[in-house]
Specification:
Blueprint (H helix, E strand, L loop, with lengths): L23 E4 L5 H12 L3 E6 L2 H14 L2 E6 L5 H15 L4 E4 L14 H29 L3 E6 L12 H20 L5 E8 L8 H4 L2 H8 L13 H8 L10 E4 L6
Parallel strand pairs: 1-2, 1-4, 2-3, 4-5, 5-6, 6-7
Helix pairs in contact: 1-2, 3-4, 4-5
The protein binds NADPH dihydro-nicotinamide-adenine-dinucleotide phosphate.
The site of NADPH dihydro-nicotinamide-adenine-dinucleotide phosphate (NDP) has 30 residues, from helix 1.
Amino acid sequence: MNEMELNVADLNLPKLAPDVSGKVVLVTGTTSGFGRRFAHVLAHAGAKVAITGRRMDRLEDVGNEIKAIGGGYSSHALDVTDVESIRRVTAEVEEALGPIDVLINNAGMNVQALATEIKVEDFDQILATNMRGTFLMSQDVGKRMIDRGEGGTILNIGSIGSHTVLPYLTAYCMSKAAVAMMTRCLAREWARYMINVNALCPGYIETELNSDWFATEKGKAQVMGYPRRRLGLEPDLDGALLLLCSDQSRIITGSLITIDDGQSL
Ligand code: NDP
């Protein structure tokens, strides 16, 4: 075949960046850290983003940032430990932006403590936010996706703690291990509805959740123990985020994708 006979369209080459334009994406925990970054990146890529969290002043700031980016969004007070709050917000999002195409379960928290020392209230709050909150959000949005009949995507934010022991973080690791198994169970149960369920398992990336710790001498020593002696940065998750929110990950489901610069090796 010569150059003239070749129709490049027949090669079915991929788009240069995963396409999320026009998708309605509900992200939990967008008032800081990863969630705020996800909201910026998705809005920049043309998605309509539902931003959520408990701190309303922060939510307003993120809304203004999305306006400056030129993106579409809606803003909602959400506490993922409260099932009534979850139900109210998913209905509000669909009213404001249309049916939810993608749910990102990002809201999370940790408390550093030895297993012998952790307070029961802290243990309960970690499990209620990271594990139960992720499940209840997925349950509500999953039912909506099934009723709509057009599939969808759920992206959970796990951690290397989903599969690796992190010191002083037993409850956190337990909650993230549950998120990993939940990801695989829901992916299996909802495969027939064309709902993809995956998890990103990031290593240590500097955000408000951990910046105080990494400023301490012990924190700095921890970083020196990593193969590349550095922390990840929030933009290091952009590529995986866009891929897993786009239709280009059509047959990726039930996957736990570690993004840790080799920290857990
Ligand atoms: P941040 O503390 O910066 O952000 C956490 C977000 O979760 C905030 O927006 C907070 O909003 C929200 N949140 C917490 N509790 C609730 C709740 N009950 N209801 C609703 N929203 C809630 O943390 P990161 O950005 O670092 O972490 C984001 C996710 O990434 C978490 O799941 C974390 O476990 C995970 N992760 C982080 C890593 C890191 O190195 N930073 C590594 C691996 C995983 P508000 O307080 O306004 O409600």
